[in-house]
Amino acid sequence: MENPLRSAWDRGKTGLNAWLNIGHTFAAEIMASQDFDALTIDCQHGPSDYSNVLPMFQAMRASGKTLMARVPWRDPTWIMKFLDAGAMGIICPMVNTRAEAEEFVSYLRYPPHGQRSWGPTRAMFAHPGYDKDAANASVIAFAMIETAEAFENLEEIAKTPHLDALYVGPSDLSLGLTNGALPPKLDREEPEIIEAIQRIVAVAHENGIRAALHCGTPEYAARGVEWGFDMVTVGTDSAILAQGAASVTKTFRGLIG
Fold it and tell me: CATH code at 40?
């Protein structure tokens, strides 16, 4: 039971992750045919729920990429359901303490490392060689660091047993660290936010786990690679669609005057 993103990490490669907001199988299939290492369906802020996630995973299966989901919350219902649908990674938002990180991990791992319930209905067919030990070793657990409280508890969160990675959400992290003084956006340039981002990747590596960064542009993602991040997210289906449509219409309007 191979997880391609883990395999890329083992080869010393930084993973490139795509973000899926549209919630449609055809859009997902198009994104999966591109040169991404992983694709994540956003079920926190995007329109997708389980009824979208399952057929989107099915549409992307042939790509051989690592298929993941960001769950709406630290809730076993969502986490276990998406894993049973075949997710090979779960990104959990708003993890603020070691206790919350431990709770998240417990929903994602089978005993003895957690309390995940057995019932991998589709996962067993999607991943040849599936068993509880292989699943525990292969599925990637990402805890999002995006609040002042999480940043304060960074060291303890990173020490959580069987947690695989910290995931930086720059928009909420900027809001939290400045008490709302900075507007939410990606690709921060403020020295204090860059320092915080670099500290997160450093603490992750000091504790033997990975770190991921959510980016708005390929250029900023390349900086994330220079800072040592093991995965960068750049390329949101909805943003790519909007940018492409805007470029076509702007060019056309300019040509006809």
Answer: 3.20.20.60
* Predicted local confidence at residue 1, as pLDDT: 85
The range of the structural domain enclosing residue 192 comes to: 4-256
Cβ pair 113, 162 in contact under 8 A: yes
Least Cα distance to 165 among 116, 204, 135 occurs for 204
Taking alpha carbons only, the member of 240, 237, 235 closest to residue 217 is: 235
SS3 assignment, position 116: coil
Q: Which residues contact 145 (CB under 8 A, 6 or more apart)?
A: 95, 151, 154, 157, 166, 167, 168, 169, 173, 200
Catalytic residue, chosen from 45, 127, 205, 214, is: 45
Distance between CA atoms of residues 75 and 92, nearest Å: 9
Number of domains in the chain: 1
pTM of the model: 0.97
Question: In this predicted model, what pLDDT tens digit does every residue of 48-71 receive, in sequence order?
Answer: 999 999 999 999 999 999 999 999
**Two structure tokens written together for 162:** 């069987």
DSSP state of 61: G
Residue 189 to residue 13: CA distance in whole angstroms: 25
Catalytic annotation present for 127? no
